Amino acid sequence: MQITSAMKMVSAAKLKKAQDAITAMRPYANKLTELLQNLSANLDLDDGSKYAEVRTVNKVLVVSISSNRGLCGAFNSNIVKQSVFLAEEEFGNRQVDFITIGKKANDLLQKRYTVIANHNEIFDNLTFEDVSEIASHLMQLFNEGSYDQILLVYNRFKNAATQIVTTEQFLPIQPLAETAQQSVGDYIYEPSEAEIVEQLIPKSLKTQLFKAIRDSFASEHGARMTAMHKATDNASELKDQLTLTYNKARQAAITNEILEIVGGAEALASD
């Protein structure tokens, strides 16, 4: 009970920092994606928007984002379940490979599927620069035609008690929804629309991956804090039950001793 209580307090302290980071970053990432979709809504592939090329999906790459440590409830198992669902149900007749970020997903997925890369070290020092290297590798794989579609699977942070398993398309870039296209802003482009989009796309994709990992990182601490809180409550309840059982056994032993003394006294009196 003392161990789980201490782990809950540690996770609560880490959660505050991680929650502040994702809360501050999410509006920027969402606005950048919206801006990119607005700019590239009417852009041809020949103009440089190669990351929006929609192909026949034969080879899929799934980036599964989990944690390096356990004791966080169903946090990691939900990611693995969703990844397996994509591999066997959603894309059952196609080639599905994985890149794992986090030791737990890697340990389970590599037993049954092809894991082409694993990035456990990313959580040792979570920085935009390190995540940018992974995003650049994903963009390279897509441009080379190694994969026709790249998906992110991660836990999106809602609050300390709720994490939402999210499957998000990384590449190709999804087109703007028809309802949103009506509200596309009027921009003045300098030097050119194609050149601006070509610069924005890599930055937006790197930010998207960084946001997903930040979301997962905050969700991990929230899930662990909740799990350790429940474990502490269960241990406290078990402690109370054991204390009651101990007191009953002790009382029964005392009662037996008293009965033996009384019985012995009566036997001596009768003699």
What coarse outline follows from CA principal-axis ratios? elongated
**Mean pLDDT, all residues:** 89
Number of E-state strands: 5
Q: β content, as a range?
A: 5-15%
Explain what the structure shows.
- This protein is 59% helix and 14% strand.
- It has helices spanning 2-40, 75-90, 103-109, 128-143, 178-181, 193-270; strands at residues 59-65, 95-101, 115-118, 149-159, 162-171.
- The model has no long low-confidence stretch (mean pLDDT 89).
- The two termini are 55 Å apart.
- The protein is an alpha/beta fold and 271 residues long.
- It is elongated and about 115 Å long.
- It has one domain (2-227): 3-Layer(aba) Sandwich (Pyruvate Kinase, Chain: A, domain 1), CATH 3.40.1380.10.
- Helix 2 (75-90) links the parallel strand 1 (59-65) and strand 2.
- The longest helix has 78 residues, at 193-270.
